[in-house]
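Subject: sequence -> structure tokens, single chain

Hey, anyone have a minute? Need the predicted structure for the following. Not urgent.
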Amino acid sequence: MSEAHIINNDSSWWVVHTKPQAELSAIKNLENQGLTTYCPLFKKESIRGHKIKIKAYPLFSRYIFIKGDCSAQKNIHLIRSTIGVKELLKIGEVPVKISCQLINELRQIEVVKLNEIKSHFKPGENVRINAGIYKDVEAIYEMDEGVNRAIVLLSMINKETSLRIDKKDLNKV
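Reply:
Had a minute. Here:
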């Protein structure tokens, strides 16, 4: 999450295993120690309490990367005891190394994919309408129609009918 640009030097990156849902806390605390971190993200839609929220989540749950530069090598003993960190992944006493090329590729993919949002519902999934005249009727989720609306298929009188509806008015079955 620190540098948004692509880094072109030869030092490798190390893999850090974080505590559950503590990636952002670990990043903040590691960066406060002068370390360079990276956590690839993706955006996901969630519906809670009739509100649609779009939030960024780590691509690799419970894993972040630290640049294995001189600062990291001098402070390697502090990494494990950092708030949010479970452990620095090692083989023996040597940190697991990730190439700069792989990190650069992840950054390039992230730039493209961060504008895409993973939908809360999947096409073909059974949903239940929880508001309006179709309340408690089951339908089949067809597709998103913008950020807040969706098209669902209702089976009425042996015929499937499309219905445009607010996504916040749907629940997964």
